[in-house]
Amino acid sequence: MSFTLSERNDTIIALATPQGVGAIAVIRISGKDAIRVCNEVFFGKNLEEQASHTIHLGTIRDGEKIIDEVLVSLFKGPRSFTKENVVEISTHGSSYIINQVLKLFVRKGVRLAKPGEFTQRAFLNGQFDLAQAEAVADL
Questions:
Q1: Nearest of 113, 87, 98 to residue 12 by alpha carbon
Q2: Which of 96, 53, 93, 95 is closest to 72 using CA atoms?
Q3: Which H/E stretch holds residue 70?
Q4: What is the crossing angle of helices 34-41 and 95-107, to 10°?
Q5: Are residues 59 and 66 in contact, defined by beta-carbon separation less than 8 angstroms?
Q6: Per-residue pLDDT tens for 82-132?
Q7: Which long-range contacts (CB under 8 A, 24 or more apart) does 123-131 make?
Q8: Per-residue confidence (pLDDT) for residue 16, from 0 to 100
Q9: What fold is seen in the domain 5-138?
């Protein structure tokens, strides 16, 4: 899998849990703008002022419309899986809610991640070696 330099600098998003399996879904965002973009649609606390490795309760909103009440986990780079800023949004597992959240972030300029892209970023950023990256891919 190969990516252009501009793609490697994009902020990316993907569903991190299997769709339709559980009551809760986790949506992961990675990139330098992950926290800033999430802060634009998260209502609860100012995420940019919060410490790394913390969880915050609030709502994700599209304008005035509440999409869901969520927990947002913050991981500031380089202390994250990809060594970039990472946000994990725990939403209810409804396909409708998941799709609404993904569409909202895409409209905000976040790109849908390609398969394996989070792991590739972790590898390229020195999080682990090639053997470890292949082991993750095997999972």
A1: 113
A2: 53
A3: strand 65-75
A4: 120
A5: yes
A6: 889 999 999 999 999 999 999 999 999 999 999 888 778 877 877 777 777
A7: 124/8, 125/78, 125/82, 125/83, 125/84, 126/83, 127/81, 127/82, 127/83
A8: 94
A9: Gyrase A; domain 2 (3.30.1360)
Indicate the domain borders of the chain: 5-138
The CA distance from 71 to 92, in Å, is: 10
Pull the structure tokens for residue 12: 């990316």
Distance in angstroms (rounded) separating the CA atoms of residues 58 and 81: 24
Tokens of 7: 């793609």
**Strand, helix or coil at 100?**
helix
State the helix-helix crossing angle for 117-124 and 130-138, rounded to 10 degrees. 170
Residues contacting 139, CB < 8 A, separation 6+? none
Residue type, 102: L
What are the structure tokens assigned to 28, written together? 């992961």
- The encoded tokens of residue 115 equal 């398969």
Cα–Cα distance for residue pair 76/87, rounded to 1 Å: 8
Distances (CA, A) of 102 to 1, 25, 123: 23, 12, 25
